[in-house]
């Protein structure tokens, strides 16, 4: 071990860092993150003495002890662009490819136009008011609107702008469509429902032709030999009824849905046999890629990088123009050019320009706006070719379609969209802390019953009331209750209602009305799922008791004063549902997912304040899917000196979870009042819940067995004989400790993803 002391200057502050150089430069950058909040992938470290950038492979023993840290985002927003040498090489490759293309292209026989023209007519169907109205009637609009607003609220945005709301609703529309529409490999037998085998093509009848089904696939049942027809409908109004098909039907129907809700929409035709959608995002100020078959959005390199597609022509078709957007979907333009052999580049441009002029013939009032958008997109597409790929983003192979079919097309790959360079995310979880605190007066009241069965009956009654509230339209939640038990519990139940942004009112006839307490109904929508999972935990803990009394008013039955609203950074995460903040949202159905967790993973948590807390206890919860992914071994570390040094607060090995959603508690009462609660650290998919506690309310301090009497303290006030306190302004664990120990301890089969097993992704 070689210990060094560095002085790091950042903005107007100097930070003293004592560091073990054997941990390497990457860990050093994470330590700087804990001090400065500049994420490791945005750090630029410069030696003060020689003014040279410190590279990632630098020898930490030899470099200057005085360093300067800058954020690349603040210093140079164009840092992601290629170097001059790379740019020159790219331009030369493009020029060479264009020259070779002149000799490779076939004679222009109209094939390029013929491939595009039918889709122009198809896209114009999306403008039909009857079709749009039919589409809107099939969508649970209020439910998707609620989900969109909750998704924004989880990011701390309770008052979104119209553009933010529209963007979030579009994503929820995509996720809903992914779950609603069905992929067809071969249709089941219409007689017995068993598997079928294709026999060939049939002739469309009149009822099929009406909806544009010019191609009819004919299948024979493998069991009863009955014939089943699979018409390939092109009219999206019919697809609203059938809700099935392959990528053509998926993109066609989803594009109609997007237009029906007012989004500028394009159908994207990939000449290498795929279709998807683009919508213009007013929030992003650009066109956004949406693939309904995969449930993935804004990931245009999915096909080239994830599916390993050899793209040639990618054409966007809209009501107001036809565009070549191939450059959005490739970073290998010179290779793509060599495959564009249907016609010359100039001929292709002329065809697209002619089609666009025809579509804009009656749009004279908005021509200038459309042309400005065209110019903006052209600049965007050109700039995209000169930017670096995000190597930290792992893109999945194709997931739609039969596995054998995908393999034959060479479109299989990894099974998750994940990132190994995650942004720092902020936990918007104050409502979770309020809910846990609100259980205190309620359980104290239940303890006065001196009957476990009566307490469970009361909780069941409360749960039914909350279920009825959750079923109500989210903008007008209201129930009226006539229950003596609720009337008896009302005073202790009111803090829970307040935590849920609800309120109660006793009417003149003695009935109790419960309704929204806040003008923003999303607060209740955000909180209600949390309280159900918290209630399940309370019920579980009460059932473990012989009887419920005030002597049981302690952890884990009560979880008080949870610290919230901290920032989180993870070793990796799956997008869009397995992000790191899912570990802290109080909802057991969400989780932090780390695809490479079997090799060691880590999670860093930083609180908003600079107070020092001591670790008291924590819980881990197994997640919803595979037992072999449950956490087996882990380490928790803390720092009380700004992240310069770390101390092991707890270490566990060979842990086993017998059930799904099972909590395992680890109590450290001698350490004070910080609790890390509900953590499902699956080796591959991990979910960590941190519940951090301060002193209990006064009405509970009289009980001698309370686990967390200590108050938040500074490092000077802490007992020097106990383990070091965990400073919440710093991290819970460093990458070095978690990754190194986890890697050493997961040598056995537990904690690894079985070879060849697909990931459990919420959207698939």
Automatic annotation (TrEMBL):
Bias (Basic and acidic residues) ranges: 374-383, 754-764
One example GO MF annotation: metal ion binding
Keywords of the record: Metal-binding, Zinc
InterPro entries in alphabetical order: Papain-like_cys_pep_sf, Transglutaminase-like, Ubiquitin-like_domsf
Regions of compositional bias (Low complexity) in chain numbering: 711-725
Keyword check for NADP: no
Any single Pfam family the record assigns to this protein: Transglut_core
Gene3D superfamilies for this protein: 2.20.25.10, 3.10.620.30, Galactose-binding domain-like (2.60.120.260), Phosphatidylinositol 3-kinase Catalytic Subunit, Chain A, domain 1 (3.10.20.90)
Region called Disordered, residue ranges: 374-399, 695-730, 744-764
Compositional bias ranges of the Polar residues kind: 384-393
Stated family: Belongs to the transglutaminase-like superfamily. PNGase family.
Name the UniProt record assigns to this protein: Transglutaminase-like domain-containing protein
Annotated source species: Mikania micrantha
Lineage: Eukaryota, Viridiplantae, Streptophyta, Embryophyta, Tracheophyta
């Amino acid at each position: 071990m070689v210990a060094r002391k560095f002085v790091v200057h950042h903005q107007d502050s100097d930070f003293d860092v004592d560091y073990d150089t054997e941990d390497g430069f990457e860990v050093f950058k994470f330590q700087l993150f804990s001090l400065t909040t500049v994420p490791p992938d945005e750090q630029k470290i410069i030696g003060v003495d020689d003014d040279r950038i410190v590279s990632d492979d630098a020898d930490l023993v030899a470099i200057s002890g005085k360093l300067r840290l800058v954020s690349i985002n603040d210093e140079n927003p164009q840092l992601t662009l290629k170097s001059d040498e790379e740019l020159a090489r790219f331009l030369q490759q493009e020029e060479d490819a264009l020259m070779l293309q002149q000799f490779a292209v076939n004679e222009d026989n109209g094939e390029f136009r013929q491939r595009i023209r039918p889709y122009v007519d198809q896209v114009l169907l999306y403008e039909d008011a009857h079709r749009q109205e039919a589409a809107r009637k099939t969508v649970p609009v209020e439910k998707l609107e609620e989900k969109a607003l909750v998704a924004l609220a989880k990011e701390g945005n309770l008052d979104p702008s119209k553009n933010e709301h529209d963007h979030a609703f579009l994503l929820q529309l995509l996720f809903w469509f992914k779950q609603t529409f069905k992929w067809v490999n071969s249709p089941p037998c219409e007689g017995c429902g068993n598997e079928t085998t294709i026999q060939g093509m049939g002739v469309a009848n009149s009822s099929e032709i009406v909806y544009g089904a010019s191609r009819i696939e004919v299948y024979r049942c493998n069991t009863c030999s009955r014939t089943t027809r699979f018409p390939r409908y092109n009219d999206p109004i019919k697809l609203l009824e059938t809700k099935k098909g392959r990528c053509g039907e998926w993109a066609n129907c989803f594009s109609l849905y997007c237009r029906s809700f007012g989004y500028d929409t394009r159908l994207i035709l990939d000449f290498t046999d795929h279709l998807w959608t683009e919508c213009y995002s007013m929030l992003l100020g650009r066109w956004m890629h949406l693939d309904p078959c995969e449930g993935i959005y804004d990931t245009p390199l999915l096909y080239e990088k994830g599916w390993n597609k050899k793209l040639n022509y990618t054409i966007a078709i809209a009501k107001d123009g036809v565009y070549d957007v191939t450059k959005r979907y490739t970073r290998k333009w010179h290779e793509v050019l060599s495959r564009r052999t249907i016609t010359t580049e100039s001929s292709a441009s002329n065809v697209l320009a002619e089609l666009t002029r025809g579509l804009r013939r009656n749009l004279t009032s908005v021509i200038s706006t459309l042309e400005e958008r065209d110019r903006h997109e052209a600049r965007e597409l050109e700039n995209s070719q000169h930017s670096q790929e995000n190597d930290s983003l792992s893109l999945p192979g194709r997931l739609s379609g039969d596995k054998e079919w995908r393999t034959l097309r060479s479109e299989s790959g990894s099974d998750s969209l994940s990132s190994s360079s995650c942004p720092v995310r902020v936990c918007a979880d104050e409502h979770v802390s309020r809910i846990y605190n609100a259980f205190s007066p309620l359980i104290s009241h239940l303890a006065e019953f001196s009957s476990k069965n009566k307490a469970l009956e009361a909780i069941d009654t409360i749960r039914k009331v909350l279920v009825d509230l959750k079923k109500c339209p989210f903008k007008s939640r209201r129930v009226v209750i006539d229950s003596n038990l609720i009337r008896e519990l009302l005073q202790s139940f009111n803090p829970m209602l307040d935590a849920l942004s609800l309120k109660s009112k006793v009417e003149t006839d003695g009935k109790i009305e419960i309704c929204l307490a806040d003008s923003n109904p999303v607060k209740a929508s955000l909180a209600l799922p949390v309280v159900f999972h918290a209630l399940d935990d309370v019920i579980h803990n009460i059932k473990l008791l012989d009887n419920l009394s005030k002597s049981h008013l302690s952890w884990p039955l009560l979880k008080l004063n949870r610290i919230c609203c901290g920032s989180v950074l993870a070793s990796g995460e799956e997008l869009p549902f397995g992000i790191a903040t899912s570990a802290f949202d109080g909802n057991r159905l969400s989780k932090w997912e780390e695809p490479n967790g079997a090799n060691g993973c880590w999670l860093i948590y930083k609180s908003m304040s600079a107070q020092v807390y001591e670790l008291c206890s924590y819980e881990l919860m197994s997640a919803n899917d595979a037992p072999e992914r449950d956490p087996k071994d882990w380490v928790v570390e803390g720092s009380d000196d700004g992240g310069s040094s770390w101390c092991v607060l707890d270490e566990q090995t060979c842990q086993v979870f017998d059930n799904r959603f099972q909590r395992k508690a680890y109590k450290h009462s001698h350490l004070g009042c910080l609790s890390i609660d509900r953590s499902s650290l699956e080796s591959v998919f991990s979910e960590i819940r941190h519940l951090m506690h301060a002193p209990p309310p006064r009405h509970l301090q009289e009980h001698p067995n309370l686990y967390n009497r200590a108050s938040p303290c500074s490092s000077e006030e802490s007992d020097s004989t106990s383990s070091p306190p965990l400073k919440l302004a710093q991290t819970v664990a460093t990458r070095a400790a978690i990754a190194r120990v986890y890697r050493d301890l997961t040598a056995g089969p537990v904690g690894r993803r079985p070879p060849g097993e697909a990931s459990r992704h919420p959207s698939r």
